[in-house]
Amino acid sequence: MSELQQWINSYLVKWGLVHDSANIWDNLIVLLLVIAVTVGIDYTCRYIFLGLFKKFAKKTKNQWDDLIVERKIINKLMHLIPAILVYIMLPLAIPREEMPTLLGIL
Fold it and tell me: Which of 49, 57, 83, 87 sits in a 20 to 30 Å window from 97, CA-based?
């Protein structure tokens, strides 16, 4: 169990939850945190990186970068960043020892 889960688990037990249900809730809370972080990074990357790329595309004389902006290729590629982050951070929320099949499905 990660330090974050242990910290959340200790607070849940202090608040009166049974230890078994606290384990489930701390996994859920960490999963929600992972999702919130990835959504925040998704919006940040799309607005910052996409805005910079659009400014760069306007300043150049090349047509290929204008086509990339017009067809929203960069915008679509930005959705890969949260997917990769979820793939990397998912074992923090759902430990392999506790629920290996659920982790495999997700």
Answer: 83
Helices and strands, number each (H, E), in the chain: 6, 0
pTM value? Answer: 0.66
CA distance 66 to 62: 7
Cα-Cα-Cα-Cα dihedral of 30, 35, 40, 44, to 10°? Answer: 130
Q: Which residue from 29, 35, 31 is spatially nearest to 15, judged by alpha carbons?
A: 29
| CB atoms inside a 10 Å sphere around CB 101 | 7
Q: Cβ–Cβ contacts within 10 Å for residue 34, how many?
A: 20
pLDDT of residue 102: 67
